[in-house]
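Hey, I was hoping to borrow your eyes for a little while. No rush at all, and the record is pasted right below.
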Amino acid sequence: MCKIVGGLLVLIWLAGAALFFVNMNLHDQTLDVVTALILTGLGIPWNLTPIFTGGSQIFRVIVVLAAPIINILIVWGLCRVIVRRICPNC
């Protein structure tokens, strides 16, 4: 179950990152609404960091692309803990 949930989150993140790079190359660095929704939804609350700390445009791009990884790891870890508590011999 954890592999399925983690795999789906990784696939969504890869799709969002691919859309981000395609959009940056085609539309002169303007963020598409679909890309923003995918990456923002996966990266909340970590992608709010540039708002409070400031930083350059490159820092903001790195945070937008890396923030979902943090949440994916948290969800994967919690899923493993929950499954181990429910079924310790599985």
The two ends are 12 Å apart (CA to CA). The mean pLDDT is 86. Helices lie at 2-26, 33-43, 49-53, 57-86.
